[in-house]
């Protein structure tokens, strides 16, 4: 598996906790999702309809060596925000090549299947798929 170091750190954090503590960690991560930069609006981002709550993202991959990720999700959607924070922490600043090499099912290593519904996990998978598509389109 080709996992960048930032994403590997997140995976190790989840591997270090059990059961409901994984959900607690996910909810804590939701607070770490950065706000959009000044001048960027939700209208500038792509909606991820597979997410149960409104989640928007965009990728700036103009610099092939330093991809930038931007997410917008409401504070009342901490699970979705947590997923976005995982991807932001794990992929923001990585190269296009590194982002594209992340396995689509990397999230299985987080061990969230017992505490989060499969529908929510599909939202995380959909976020990664959109990120990769936007990276490919920038190439």
UniProtKB/TrEMBL annotation:
Residues 12-134 form the Fe-S metabolism associated domain. This is SufE family protein. Coiled coil: none annotated. Signal peptide: none annotated. It comes from the Bacteria. PANTHER family: SUFE-LIKE PROTEIN 2, CHLOROPLASTIC, SULFUR ACCEPTOR PROTEIN CSDE. Belongs to the SufE family. InterPro entries: Fe-S_metab-assoc_dom. It comes from Rhodococcus antarcticus.
């Amino acid at each position: 598996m080709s996992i960048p170091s930032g994403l590997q750190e997140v995976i190790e954090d989840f591997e270090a906790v059990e059961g409901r503590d994984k959900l607690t960690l996910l909810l804590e991560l939701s607070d770490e999702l950065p706000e959009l930069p000044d001048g960027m609006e939700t209208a500038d981002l792509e909606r991820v309809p597979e997410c149960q709550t409104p989640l928007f993202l965009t990728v700036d991959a103009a610099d092939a060596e330093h991809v930038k990720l931007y997410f917008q999700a409401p504070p009342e959607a901490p699970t979705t925000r947590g997923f976005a924070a995982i991807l932001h922490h794990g992929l923001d600043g990585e190269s296009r090549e590194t982002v594209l090499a992340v396995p689509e099912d990397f999230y299985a290593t987080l061990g969230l299947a017992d505490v989060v519904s499969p529908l929510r996990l599909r939202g995380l998978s959909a976020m990664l798929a959109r990120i990769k598509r936007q990276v490919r389109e920038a190439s």
